[in-house]
Structure formats: C-alpha cells, structure tokens
Design a protein that fits this description.
two-stranded antiparallel sheet, 11 strands, about 20% strand, 9 helices, 9-stranded mixed beta sheet, Rossmann fold, alpha/beta
C-alpha cells in the first residue's frame, strides 16, 4: 500500500530482486551501495540501471536533482511507479543495452548487481557512455566469480555471465580513463573499502602457517565496485554500513523489551509532569495561601511539644 492508501501491484519475490523488507546480509550489501552512491548524487541527474522495485532510486532521489530508474521487468516498473511517487524520480521500462534516454542526459550512472545477469557487457558500456555527460561518473558493482561462486561452491541460476575481479576491472578500464576499484564484503557490517589498502582503524588477521599475518587490503571481498570517469575521480573513502538484523529472535526480544521500557519511562514522565502541575495549582490557590498562618502556628506548636514540624511547600 502506498502513501495514498492504494494497494500496490504484487511483485514476485525471486530471491535475486532486492525488497526493502529483506533483512540480513542481502540488505546490508544493497543498502550500503546505495548509501555510498547517494554521497555522489547531490544535485545531479542520476540513472539507476536495473532499479528493481525502486527502493534504491528513491534513496538516491533524496539527494539528486532527478533520478531515472530503468528496469527490464514491467512488473517491477509498475510497482515502483505506484510505490515511490516523487516529483524528481521517474521509472522507465528498458534494457541496459538500450537505455531509453537521450545522449548526454545524466551526470551519474549507478548499476548494482546487474552485469552478471546478461551477456551484453560491451553494449551496456556503450549505452552508459552515450547517456553520460562529459566527465560524468559511473558506479557499478559485480560479484567476483572466484569468491561468490567458486570458493563458496554455489552457482547462482540467475547469473548468466559472472566475471572474475580481474576481468571486471579490465572491462571497466577499456571504457573509462580513470577507474578505482573497491571491495565489498559483509563482516559484522557491510564494508566497502579501496582495493589494495585498508582504513587505519580496521585490521584483519588470519592464521598462516606457524604464525598470524595481518594482510593489507580487504581480504577476499565478495563484490567489486568500480568508480569510473573520463575526468578525475572524486575523493573515495572506506565505509561501514551497520544494521541490526531483526531476523535474530534474541535481538527482536531485546528490542521489544527496550521499546516497552521506553514506553514505561514516557508514562512515568507524564505522571511526574501531572503531579508537578497539581502541586503548582495547589501552591498558587487562594485557600493554600490563606491557611499559611494556621500551618505556621501548627508547626510552632509541634516544635514546642517536641514533635517534628511538617514541611512547608
């Protein structure tokens, strides 16, 4: 259901299509990529290739001047148009090898986990270069076949043509003058770090032979992220994206207990505020002020007889 109360078109959950209600590793990976891309989208015209149900395009729309979300799946586009009705976000039906935009239309192209789903890699890059304005920026992710499939011994039926990290880098470098490759993997949170070097605040250790080594770079990243342009690249920094996994029953219980405690505290604060108002009303009443001499005399009598005086409010 969207903000207007209309029921949204049903969207098939394929397991490959990211949905915002997902939790865990997949959510960390997808949301982190879009959070990173949003930093480069401020005031720009952005193309989100294979936008799916539209969540990422809507995230980018929070910073961009305009966002075009393009997807080959008509049900996804229909769903996105109904769910994310924003004046600066538009969803279009189209293929990555035939983008429905004019030449030199966009400043930033975002393509996350798309290239492995088809074989038209050269055609896709030709289209990206066509719609990008001179000096425009591209951010693209791709699973490293070595880490994603071979080392994990798991083949994804939806992946048509996976690339090794070296193949992906060479492909991007054939089409752009300046290329930076970052690696992404989920640790306790999703990490995106420049390939070949590591942020000073993060250290990795692994056992090797008789000792323990601390290797440089992001160890065995599952995904490669290319940031590319024919102009000088913007400054790139490593980042972490952390989110509590609601699928963990213990975490759900703790969150429930925390919410209950917050509600109880809020209730007690309301009670205290009510008591303060009541006391203030009593202290400022005519009867309370008029009987002050009597209370003073009663306290004097208590003092004379050795009894403790009552506290005067």
């Amino acid at each position: 259901m969207n903000k207007t109360g209309n029921v949204l078109p049903e969207l098939e959950a394929t397991g490959e299509r990211f949905l915002p209600e997902m939790q865990g590793t997949i959510a960390l990976e997808h949301l982190h990529r879009y959070a990173m891309a949003k930093d480069f989208a401020a005031g720009k015209v952005v193309l989100d290739i294979a936008c799916g149900e539209g969540y990422g395009s809507a995230v980018l729309g929070g910073a961009a001047a305009r966002v075009y979300g393009v997807d080959i799946a008509l049900d996804a586009i229909t769903h996105a148009r109904a769910k994310y009705q924003r004046p600066n976000v538009e969803f279009l039906s189209g293929r990555c090898a035939d983008i429905p935009l004019a030449d030199g239309t966009v400043d930033l192209v975002v393509s996350f986990e798309t290239i492995e789903h088809h074989t038209e890699h050269e055609e896709m890059f030709a289209e990206i270069k066509r719609v990008l304005r001179p000096g425009g920026l591209m951010i693209m992710s791709s699973p490293d076949k070595r880490e994603y499939t071979e080392r994990a011994n798991h083949a994804n039926a939806y992946h048509v043509k996976e690339l090794y990290a070296e193949e992906f880098q060479c492909l991007v470098e054939r089409h752009f003058t300046h290329v930076a490759i970052l690696g992404q993997r989920v640790l306790y949170a999703s990490a995106i770090l420049p390939s070949g070097r590591l942020g000073e605040s993060i250290h990795y250790y692994r056992e090797h032979g008789a000792g323990i080594q601390s290797p440089r770079g992001l160890v065995r990243p599952c995904y490669q992220i290319a940031v590319a342009s024919d102009a000088a690249l913007p400054s790139l920094a490593g980042s972490l994206f952390e989110e509590i996994g609601e699928s963990d029953p213990e975490i759900r219980l703790l969150r429930h207990q925390l919410d209950h405690a917050r509600q109880r505290i809020a209730g007690l604060e309301d009670e205290v505020a009510g008591l303060k108002r009541a006391i203030g009303s009593i202290l400022h009443s005519h009867s309370w002020r008029a009987t002050r001499p009597l209370r003073a005399a009663a306290n004097l009598l208590r003092t004379i007889t050795g009894k403790p005086a009552e506290t005067e409010l």
